[in-house]
# Entry
Amino acid sequence: MSNVFSEVYGTYYNVVAKVLTQAVQGKLSLAQLQQIVSSEAYEDSILQLLPALKEGTWRLLTPELATPVQHTPIMPLTTLQKRWLKALCLDERLSLFLDDAELALAMQALEGVEPLYKPEQFVFFDRYVDGDDFRSERYRANFRKLLQAMRERKLVDASYRNNKDRIIIWTNLVPLSLEYSAKDDKFRLQAVAGKKLVTLNLNKLITADFSEEENVSTYYVHAARLKEQRQRLVLELEDTRHTLMRAMLHFSDLAKETQKLDDMHYLLTVDYDQSDETEMLYRVLSFGPTIKVREPESFKELLRQKLLEQLSCHNK
# Structure
C-alpha cells in the first residue's frame, strides 16, 4: 500500500464498501442498493455493479441482501498517508488540538513510520522570530476553550494584556474564528466585543472562560451583522513570476473571488477585517509591480503614503 494511487480507493471499492456497511448492519434493501449504486458510482455502473452484487456473481450479498461479511469494511491507510500523519504529529501546533494522551496514542500508532518531512527541514527567511509558544499550558488551555466555544456557539469572558501592558477584561465575547499568520507564526482570535470587531493575539490572552450569559442568540445575530461589514479590496494581477499562484497562497486565509480578464491578467477581490489593514498593506506591497490596487481609494492612498515614506528613507 505504498503507492500514491490505488484501486482500493477507487469509486467501485468505495461504493461496494457502502453497500456492505448497510448489509452488515442489516439495513440494506433493494431500493437502497439501487440508490447507492446510482448516486455514488458512474452512470454505467448500474449495468455492471448492480447485477454483480444483486445476482451473487461476487458472492458478497445473499438473495435476501444479507452478507457473509462479518465486519464493516474499512479503508487501510497507505504508507504515504501514515508518513504524512507522522509529520503532522511532529508539528508543535498539533498540541493545540490534541491533549498529551491523544498525542502519545497517535505517536504509538505510528511507531516505526518515517515522517514525510520534519519541522527542522523548513527554513523561513521572512518570518518573525517571536512566534507564539504553542507548548505553553496556558496557551493550549485558552486555545481549546475558544475552539470549543466556537463549535458550541458559546460566549467567552477573557482577560487580556494589551500592548501597553495593561490588563483588559472582556465580557461576553463572541468568538468568530481562530486565524494563523504564517508570517508572524502566531494565532489570533477574531471576535465581537460589544459593538465592534476585535482582533486579539492569543499569546497575550491570560484567561478564557465560558460566559454565564444565556441569551446567546442575540449576540450571534449582532456578530453576523458586523461580520458583513468587512472591508473589500480589489486587486488586478499580472500573472508573471507565478503571481496568481502566490496570491492564492498568500491570501488563502481570507474570503476571495477570482475573475480572469485575459491570459495574463486576473481580478482578485479579497475581504478583510478593518483592523488588519496595516498587515494587508504589507501583503500587497510584497508583490511589487505585479499587483495593482483598483479599489478602494482609501487603500490606494495608504499605499501611496507608504511608498513615499520608503522613497524618503531611501533618499536619506
About this structure: The CA atoms of residues 54 and 289 lie 63 Å apart.
